[in-house]
């Protein structure tokens, strides 16, 4: 997707998309892109493409009403949102943009513990597979992995560090479904470990189970990682009965897979 958005080779194909095709692309949570702002800039190029009178005037208003709900404004940086609000497009359609940018500014300014309300569960708050280093990661547990009992499935995660100089913090998230006692009910365990830790790291975490169109379950907390206590369980099992995952047409799964979002924020 990055090549389509940034390469001249694909510019004409991108510009020739009709409104419904663009909307279907924006609905996808599986897009692999550097960040949401790059996608928004490409939408601007699509709108401003030559020989597209249907994207001007009152028709543009109808187009924005259709596509804006599928742009993930909350995962833009504050400076990107501010720049966006100053563009001619947003200035001309203030009433359409303001609800989305206002909610995004509110979302990024709040601690993770206050993001678990119903105000922040719509498609706007679903992560894509962004490749830029950030504090947010998307993890997919496949159907095959779900059915492997007692196996630690490890996912390597990199985030920004809470330092002035650009650095990376590395993490390992382990997902396991296991029975701790013979004949007992299966238990879901999610463990987060801080890799190669030199100094203590205090972070807030928010881990979410997400569907195709909204956030379904969430757990938040605060943890301090040190050299001696470098991993901790994230209490997702308090929100999920394992039997729900294996019920027919489970609402917690997307095409048989479990989709998780992990949001971390440093506590300074």
Automatic annotation (TrEMBL):
Domain BACK, chain residue ranges per copy: 12-83
Domain of life: Eukaryota
PANTHER family: BTB DOMAIN-CONTAINING PROTEIN, HL07962P-RELATED
Full protein name: BACK domain-containing protein
Species for this entry: Panagrolaimus superbus
């Amino acid at each position: 997707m990055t090549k389509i958005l940034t390469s001249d080779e694909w510019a004409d194909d991108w510009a020739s998309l009709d409104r419904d095709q663009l909307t279907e692309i924006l609905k996808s949570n599986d897009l692999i892109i550097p960040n949401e702002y790059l996608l928004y800039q490409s939408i601007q190029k699509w709108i401003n493409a030559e020989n597209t009178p249907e994207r001007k005037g009152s028709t543009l208003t109808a187009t924005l009403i259709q596509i804006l709900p599928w742009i993930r404004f909350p995962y833009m940086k504050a400076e990107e949102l501010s720049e966006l609000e100053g563009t001619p497009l947003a200035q001309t359609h203030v009433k359409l943009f303001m609800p989305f940018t206002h909610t995004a500014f509110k979302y990024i300014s709040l601690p993770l513990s206050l993001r678990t309300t119903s105000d922040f569960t719509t498609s706007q708050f679903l992560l894509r597979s962004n490749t830029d280093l950030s504090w947010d990661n998307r993890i997919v547990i496949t159907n095959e992995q779900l059915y492997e009992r007692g196996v630690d499935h490890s996912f390597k995660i990199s985030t920004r560090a809470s330092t002035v100089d650009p650095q990376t913090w590395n993490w390992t998230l382990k997902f396991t479904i296991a029975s701790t006692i013979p004949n007992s009910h299966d238990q879901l365990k999610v463990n987060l470990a801080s890799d190669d830790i030199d100094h203590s790291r205090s972070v807030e975490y928010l881990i979410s189970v997400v569907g195709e169109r909204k956030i379904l379950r969430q757990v938040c907390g605060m943890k301090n990682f040190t050299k001696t206590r470098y991993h901790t369980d994230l209490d997702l099992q308090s929100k999920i009965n394992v039997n729900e995952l294996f019920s027919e047409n489970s609402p917690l799964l997307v095409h048989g897979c479990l989709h998780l979002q992990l949001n971390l924020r440093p506590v300074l």
